[in-house]
Amino acid sequence: GADWYSGTDYTNEEHKKKMMESVRQVVMEYKDEPYILMWMLGNENNYGYAGTPNVEPGMGCRAKIQPDAYYAFVNEVAKMIKSIDPNHPVAICNGETVYIDYFAKYCTDVDVFGANVYRGPYGFGRTYWEDVKDMTDRPTMITEYGCPSYLKDDPARGEEFQAGYHKGNWE
To answer: Could you tell me the pTM of the whole model?
Structure first.
């Protein structure tokens, strides 16, 4: 029910109802498939990328604007999934550790904290793991990482930079 430029309003009952129904249908359809490992909710919803940068203040992805409502809703979805499929864990795919404090507070029924982590040539280091450990006792996983694509005409972001970025992540 949300248009692209306004973004999902996690306080809007109609938006939440439609999302819950959509997730319910997916879980019902696939819960018994042998290849399902877990249910992953979202993909960097906490960052606030939606529509265009020229939208009115307060618009766009509302998870960034309404983190309490967003993470509380994620927990509602996790509860619903577990009522349908108690055999698979539920995870979230956060952007980095941004708002992990809200995750810890509201997402008590989410089993795994997942994050897309892009930390450059310094890699994940201890800081990622410590950030997560300091905020939640749940398992964590890195759901995505990488580096900016090779830019032939930008020496600052060229092959050497990209190689160092990858090396830092691998180490």
So the answer is: 0.85
